[in-house]
Amino acid sequence: MMRKGMWTAVLVAVVMACGFGLKAKAASDAPAVGAAAPNFTLPSQEDKPVSLKDYKGKWVVLYFYPKDQTTGCTIEAHNFQRDMPKYDAANAVVLGVSLDTVEGHKAWCAKDTFSFKLLADPDHKVVDMYGVPVASHGDMKFAARQTFLISPEGKVVKFWPKVDVQTHSEEVLAEIAANKK
User: Fold this and answer.
1) Does the domain spanning 2-180 belong to CATH 3.30.70.20?
2) Which of 24, 52, 145, 163 has the greatest count of CB atoms below 10 A from its CB?
């Protein structure tokens, strides 16, 4: 019975991290559309450093999500993975960022076979740099689900402060196509 209560608390915390009751930086702290996207370096699931500047000349989908291996995050990640050939054709990369560790990302990528980079930001340096709200539940912290589309020139083209995990990948692809014209 105690275990069920703990999982209920975790579920409530994850739901909160998806946009309800967050007490953190406001979206106004996010880089503005048209501004240069802040550069960063974080370790990927391969425990190798990944920097935004590595993708100069490509579209970058920088998406922040609450927690590895949770329902909404899994749906969102699977949709990005499903559409990976479309991102490749659009000269785009997908980078997921959460407060999870490299080890957590490694386990999730092995289990669900994601080919795009998941970046570990347990100290929420990049989460804070991009003004993404953070919720906490006890010792656990969760980043809000938000996405930035960054142009090949390194500018923020679009910011999604709220995301529908079911349709988000299609929205991002449509935005890339609209901005290529």
Assistant:
1) no
2) 145
Beta carbons of 108 and 118 less than 8 angstroms apart: yes
* Residue whose structure tokens are 């499903």: 82
Give the Cβ contact number of residue 128 at 10 Å: 16
Tell me the pTM. 0.84
CA distance 150 to 145: 17
Task: Determine how many CB atoms are found less than 10 A away from the CB of residue 176.
Answer: 20
**pLDDT single digits (tens) 71-129:** 989 999 999 999 999 999 999 999 999 999 999 999 998 899 999 999 999 999 999 99
- From the list 52, 73, 135, 143, the catalytic residue is 73
Specify the 3-state DSSP secondary structure of 169: helix
CA 51 to chain centre: 15
Establish whether 73 is a catalytic residue: yes
Instruction: Give the whole-angstrom CA distance, residue 148 versus residue 61.
Output: 6
CB neighbours of residue 85 within 10 Å: 8
**Which of 161, 125, 143 lies closest to 33 in space, CA to CA?**
161
Give the chain's length.
181
For the chain, what are the domain ranges? 2-180
